[in-house]
Amino acid sequence: MNKIEEVSRRPSKTGRRIALSKFVFIVVIILSAFTAIPLLSILFELIAKGWRQFNGALFTEVAPTSMEAMFARQGGNVIPGGILNGITGTLTMLGLAILLSIPLGVLAGIYLAEKKDAKLANVIRTLTDILQGVPSIVIGIVIYMWVVKSMNNYSALAGGIALGLMMIPMIVRSTEESLRMIPDSLKEAGLALGGSYTNVMFKVILPSAFGGLFTGILLSISRVMGETAPLLVTALGANYVHGDITKPMSAVSLLIWEFYNDPNLADLVWSSSLLLLLLILGMNLLAKMIASRWRIQ
């Protein structure tokens, strides 16, 4: 056998590379599929155990007492009541958090994008990153010292401020990154046409970056929606529906904690958790849809 025949019988390097590439691609797909297993397992568990309590009463009635739940369990019935006080409390405190965090976060993000090399911008950027890593219970304790002790009362206002502080870092960084993707020529064109800096920023630049901004806001909301620790020391909870933000108020995450600590109400843990998970999943999917449809060209 001569050398030409020997070489022709060897597998080519190109063929081996293609085979190796396919192998690595399959491994990556398999490992990526494994990352979805925990979420799918949690979702399946919540649906399997929470569907019985996932009814209209869950959204229209307040949480039952332990005695009512015990009688229902003894009779083999579905536990009466729902989590209306938690749903209204969560929406109220999220509304307060949005009012606090969006103006501060967007304005800080504009400053960081416009003065990216300034020393103050670097300081703010560093502090924002640190704030993002602060444990939620620490933020809750700080708000307890600042707001709850000053008001001598637990309140929805304190809970909203705690959630708002947690939302600010994500809004700041998403605003900064979104504005940096806007070409400078757009701002220059606006200024060249005689528009003031404020008008160009709020009527041209921010609307152009709306997709990134809105995505960051939605992700920050979904991040704090399930927080329990800061609300335990600020909002405390309430077993009725009211609109007074200076009084203690419940939230879905607080009710889950209360249900968990009461064996008679344990069945409501699953339905409440399922609702919270579906809300967070919905927010994340909406954020991804907006990000994909509103890409900066």
Describe this structure in words.
It is a single chain. The protein is mainly alpha-helical. Helix content is 75%, strand content 0%. It is built from 14 helices and no strands. The chain has helices spanning 3-9, 13-50, 56-60, 66-74, 84-114, 119-133, 136-151, 156-180, 184-192, 197-208, 210-225, 229-232, 252-260, 266-293. The protein is flat and about 80 Å long. The protein starts with a helix and ends with a helix. The mean pLDDT is 88.
Brief sketch in words of this structure:
It contains 14 helices and no strands. With 297 residues, the chain is mainly alpha-helical.
Task: Give short descriptive properties of this protein.
single chain; 297 residues; mainly alpha; 75% helix
What about the largest sheet?
Answer: none
Number of strands: 0
Secondary-structure element sequence?
HHHHHHHHHHHHHH
Uncertain parts: none
What is the strand and helix layout of this fold?
Blueprint: H1 3-9, H2 13-50, H3 56-60, H4 66-74, H5 84-114, H6 119-133, H7 136-151, H8 156-180, H9 184-192, H10 197-208, H11 210-225, H12 229-232, H13 252-260, H14 266-293
